[in-house]
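WARN  no MSA supplied for this record, continuing single-sequence
INFO  ligand: magnesium ion
INFO  echoing inputs
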Amino acid sequence: MTGSALVTGSMLVTATDTGVGKTVLSASLLAAIAAAGKPVRAHKPVVTGTEEPDTGWPKDHELLAQVARMDPHEVTRVCFGPAVSPHLAAELAGVQLDFDDLLAAAHAALATATEREQVCVIEGVGGLLTPLTANHTVCDLAAALHLPVLVAARPGLGTINHTLLTLSCARAAGLTVCAVVLTPWPDQPSTMERSNLTTIARMGSVEVAPLPFVASPQSAPLARAGDTLPWRRWLAAGT
Ligand SMILES: Nc1ncnc2c1ncn2[C@@H]1O[C@H](COP(=O)(O)OP(=O)(O)O)[C@@H](O)[C@H]1O
Ligand SMILES: [Mg+2]
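INFO  complex generated
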């Protein structure tokens, strides 16, 4: 296994739950950074749900590959059809996922990014405590990689609890939380949504940034949304 030094310019995008907006956030960041002329790289440890009906949005590794100008198979080596947690997807497929292999693949992506002076965005799977294998979670992967995490969260009802729990878990594992991103942030946020943003920032002692709604999965609208985020500062801060 390779060493795990902090890799400047890279981050892991996690979320309070599955289906919250990790892919949209990761793709928006990658598209914005690429549009600013900085080379980018995407990595996803495991993709599940490739057999799900078409939603109008590409599968995670396809969208990440599109914005990072990579081949989808370079983004992930591990895909499963059913939309279930990786540990179960592997079990249903009759294979075993090895945490050290997933870690080595993530390290390889980060090493290539460092070599090529690319910013690497790793999209997690599900939420922070989603099992990757029978005994290891996404949180274990982020900790082993020493990567700062960006937390995608919903803007609406329930998000304070989910987000504070995620922050608490991340910090207990020694992770650096870069920021929370509320997504999709409406054009006209309600009183509750605005209050959720400030309450998470205050109670979680964390920066909270809103990500606007992205109408279609093309690089240009994704880059416009990503550019509303202070990604330059996040990267300059050693993330
Ligand atoms: N900023 C956003 N703009 C448009 N759609 C969003 C945004 N954030 C989340 N969504 C929607 O939420 C759903 C889940 O987003 P996705 O990024 O696939 O989540 P995850 O990767 O966490 O599973 C998608 O249907 C996506 O279109
Ligand atoms: Mg995703």
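The pocket of adenosine-5'-diphosphate (ligand 1) is lined by residues 15, 18-24, 57, 152, 183-184, 211, 213-214 (CB under 6 Å).
INFO  checksum written, moving to next record
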